[in-house]
Amino acid sequence: MIINKKRRAATAKIIKLSALAICIFTGIRAPAVADDIQFNTDVLDVKDRQNIDLSRFSRRGYIMPGEYTFKIKINQNELEEQTVMVYASEKDKTVSVPCFTPDMVEKFGFKEAYQKKVTPWHNGECLDVTALPGVTVTPDTGENVLTVSVPQAYMEYITDNWVPPSMWDNGIPGLLADYNLNAQSRHNETGSGGDDNTLSGNGTFGANFGPWRARADWQTNYQNSSDDDNGSGQKSWDWSRFYLYRALPALKAKLTLGEDYVNSDLFDSFRFTGGSLISDDNMLPPNLRGYAPEVTGVAKTNAKVTISQQGRVIYESQVAAGPFAIQDLNSAVAGTLDVRVQEQDGSVQEYKVNTANIPYLTRPGTVRYKFFAGQPTDYDHHSQGNTFGTGEFSWGISNGWSLYGGMVSSSKYLALAVGVGRDLMALGALAFDVTRSDAKLEGEHRHGQSYRVSYSKRFDDTGSQVTFAGYRFSEKDFMSFNDYLSYRADYGDYMQSKEMYTITFNQQFEKLGISAYLNYSHQTYWNSPTEDRYSLSLSRYFDIGRWKNINASLTAYRNKFNGENDDGMYLSLSIPWGDSGTLGLNSSYNGDNNSHNLSYYGRLKNGDNYRVAAGGTDDGGSLSGYYDHYGDMAEVTGNVDYQHGQYSSAGMSLRGGMTATLQGAALHRSNTTGGTRMLLDTGDAANIPVRGYSNVTKTNRFGKAVITEVNNYSKNSLSIDINNLPENAESTSSVVQATLTEGAIGYRKFNVVTGLKAMAVIRLADGSFPPFGASVSNAQNQEVGIVNDDGQAWLSGLKPGAALKVSWDGDVQCEVTLPENLAVQTQTGNLLLPCQHGAAQL
């Protein structure tokens, strides 16, 4: 009952404090001058009307001269928090003006012509952006924000999710270590084979300094089987790549030094050591950007999917049984990818996916380019040939026509390519190119040509889209540079490509509610068997009575190699069940075994998801389970499978990382190994929930959290989940923004106050009280309360023994010290806090 009375009293005091806000909005008298505001204090219920200080509210935008830490906001775009000096105006000493340095103004996003019109002041140290008509600067000391309002005509091109290069953030220096570990154990119950245990992983170590990113990629594999004679197993650890890179915003390009892969739109990919300069579509506005590959397939059981290119693991993850689609590959990946699906029953699917791009078209008047130079190397970092150079370009000649071409040159190899692309508007986009190679081999001289036609079109009227369709024919004596290197390394033994077809097709049948997806690739060789891969998916949503959004889907595939077919089909019916669950009926058919399962998929409130299934196969009954946990320090996935009389297995994966900077460090989940991330700082406030695009992460005991769900060169908004703040925490700002360059470690700090809350009475040494409207702030200059009548103030973020400053008349006047037994005193009544003059001046 006592507690309830105290709460009511505190509430009454808070209501009384709101009188200050009422006077500002309802008791304002006509200003004497443009920036002066006078308040009608008659509306205030204050006993001592002579003891009122509203001076800090009386001049619009006025703050005391001094040094402040502000987050600068340009219209709706935010820059990082930084130190800003505030000086008295050279024209009117009663007016304060923030000092924007030339380095700051360069990041505001002004067009060059208007940036030259801002005027210097304070001995050239500052620039006056208000010299441009219509530009205003508004400080908000409560939220530590400086808002600069700029007419859009002065600004470079800006959209809701993209800002110009001048606003990009290279982040702060730091170290990072990302990892992806997968463990699997299988017990064979048939007696014909032993138990198998595997541990594999890949990741990246890195360091950031200024705009430069240093990275070292690694991968490891350990296999142990009870059938091994010596029981030692197979172990490997490989450093797959060492490299440096940085963004060159002025060129809209990326510079890379070290070990890299030639990712070309015209030529085959190969590994090399040297340097590259590539125009980066990611630096363009989103509507002008390119394409990233997608890998699809069907897992017969809970399985591990590994995607690699020329031996280097690009992506590895465990997936639940059924169709899967991997869409988060790096858009820089190009060429042919090797996909390996390792099932829990020991079987393996292997196939190739061609990441062929859409036609090489470029917007009118612009040029896209790629340059590579160095020495070809193999996976073991050994030289594989002579120094080479390659370059390619695409030039937008006019509105619809593009000319493109390129060259690969080495001492005994030369390839030239030229092509033309045409935007056919309503009919899509078409491109044709021809490549001629000339290779000098031991005892012979080979030269031949390769022809390619590609097409892309989205049919809005019919709801269909051909994302890529292509045909390529290579003459028998044509050799790509990769073929040439393989010929030299393997003494003439390499696969000579002949014909290649590939198509990806989407179709929406809106009236029937059916979605269709088709992927087909066909590859023939002059000296090897044909490879074919078909994949077809059909899906339909419908309602039956009170059951809504029921989904039925069919996925069928065929992988054909060396005259052998690997056929399969997956049928699924899913029914929403409860608030966040789905009941499923699944059937899988393939040449080895058929299975039928009843499953339940659920999602928990914390974002975790799970799947349990029971059913049968041709060999007997089966049970399986899958669980995915989004932890603050790592994403953890676990799965178990049991096949009666055949095997039992279990798997687990960990995906996470560590980021360390001078501003703090944290363990975290990992999105793309070695990729861009944001370090969020809530001061000494621990367990604060922060959010990127989707999942919530809580700050660690040091008030730090790292979010990896951020995009390069796009505006990212990150926020505090204010609905789930701890009871002793308050935040004056809940959203921050950042546009980061690739690989950056961004840093943003939230203004969070933590501690006890209490009603206090502040009394001066002579027995009087600070004036009504005086400000109370902590050591971090965060305002924790405003003085009301008779020295009363509702204070928050209180810590035992801490010192608080009390300010009025534009200066710190005295300081109070909180008692060590603060928690006890806040339970017994109002705090009595003596305010000592001069203590705060130390």
UniProtKB/TrEMBL annotation:
<dbReference type="InterPro" id="IPR000015">
    <property type="entry name" value="Fimb_usher"/>
</dbReference>
<feature type="domain" description="PapC-like C-terminal">
    <location>
        <begin position="762"/>
        <end position="817"/>
    </location>
</feature>
<dbReference type="InterPro" id="IPR037224">
    <property type="entry name" value="PapC_N_sf"/>
</dbReference>
<dbReference type="Pfam" id="PF13954">
    <property type="entry name" value="PapC_N"/>
</dbReference>
<comment type="similarity">
    <text>Belongs to the fimbrial export usher family.</text>
</comment>
<keyword id="KW-1029">Fimbrium biogenesis</keyword>
<keyword id="KW-1134">Transmembrane beta strand</keyword>
<protein>
    <submittedName>
        <fullName>Outer membrane usher protein</fullName>
    </submittedName>
</protein>
<dbReference type="InterPro" id="IPR043142">
    <property type="entry name" value="PapC-like_C_sf"/>
</dbReference>
<dbReference type="InterPro" id="IPR025949">
    <property type="entry name" value="PapC-like_C"/>
</dbReference>
<dbReference type="Pfam" id="PF13953">
    <property type="entry name" value="PapC_C"/>
</dbReference>
<dbReference type="InterPro" id="IPR042186">
    <property type="entry name" value="FimD_plug_dom"/>
</dbReference>
<keyword id="KW-0732">Signal</keyword>
<keyword id="KW-0998">Cell outer membrane</keyword>
<keyword id="KW-0812">Transmembrane</keyword>
<feature type="signal peptide">
    <location>
        <begin position="1"/>
        <end position="34"/>
    </location>
</feature>
<keyword id="KW-0813">Transport</keyword>
<dbReference type="Pfam" id="PF00577">
    <property type="entry name" value="Usher"/>
</dbReference>
<dbReference type="InterPro" id="IPR018030">
    <property type="entry name" value="Fimbrial_membr_usher_CS"/>
</dbReference>
<feature type="domain" description="PapC N-terminal">
    <location>
        <begin position="38"/>
        <end position="183"/>
    </location>
</feature>
<dbReference type="InterPro" id="IPR025885">
    <property type="entry name" value="PapC_N"/>
</dbReference>
<keyword id="KW-0472">Membrane</keyword>
